[in-house]
Amino acid sequence: MTITAPRLGATSLLYESSKPRNIVNRGLTAVAAMFSLIAVLPLILVLIYVLIKGGASIHPRIFFELPPPPGLSEPKGMGNAIIGTIAVTAIGALVSIPVGIGGGIYLAEMGRTTKFADAVRFGVNVLSGVPSIICGLFVYALVVNTRVIFGESFTAVAGGISLAVLMLPTIIKTTDEGMKLVPHELRLAAYGVGASRFVTITRVVLPAAIAPIATGVVLAIARAAGETAPLIFTCLFSPFWPDWERGLGLLAPVATMSVQIYNFGVMPFETQRELAWAASFVLVVLILGANLLARWLARFTAR
């Protein structure tokens, strides 16, 4: 007994828009597109509003002058906040990048299946969901309140430490996952030619996973640069230039753009509100640029 497949006519393969399945398909596609637009719309509106309001307040002087005292209109700058943001974020990166990459290497290469590694992964996942203000309070109690940094309380170093705590989960997770993506055959090949585990990790596995690691580092820095709550409890704010006599300004309170937005945005003076919008513009551009850089790194290394 033979079974013959039914013959299909040429017209049965053509797309017919009137068929119920095609009508349902178009309807569900439209619904999915609408939900996607709703999800992206707040981001687009925020970006447009900040770029319009903040861009109108941007001028060259704003990068080289101090903010004016409340009630005055001159000078009109935020150079101290820009320097403070760069300094605090750099301190956080210097602390978190070595620790985060080292922790990710341990989880991926040395303790992949141990109970300790599972506990660390669980802790990292929990830490990534902790509100940033809790991290600020933790560093305040541990560093600021105890004055362990050369007897100083509010400092740029304390602010950098609080940002490092926020950056650690992202760097550890991306390093862990990135090194897991490296084919195991590369490790076996390195062992086969007599390479030690240290040489295999540093010369073979780590370079192969540099793309996701670099992407995670950039995203972590972008997130930390826009944080406000931890910096209020750790480096406070200063309307002056960094005090270079006190550890290059790192052992004293410093201004940051996020805290400046928080302080100036509620003031009744027009100049301060303009500076808050200008700081929002600069901060959004920096964070947007960092995210675009992360996407470019991922695409460049995937070629």
Automatic annotation (TrEMBL):
Domain ABC transmembrane type-1: 82-294
UniProt GO MF annotations: phosphate transmembrane transporter activity
Gene3D superfamilies, A to Z: MetI-like (1.10.3720.10)
UniProt cross-references to InterPro entries, sorted A to Z: MetI-like, MetI-like_sf, Phosphate_PstA, Phosphate_transprt_permease
Transmembrane segments: 28-52, 81-107, 119-143, 149-168, 275-298
A GO BP annotation: phosphate ion transmembrane transport
Entry's family note: Belongs to the binding-protein-dependent transport system permease family. CysTW subfamily.
Name of the molecule in the record: Phosphate transport system permease protein PstA
Gene designation per UniProt: pstA
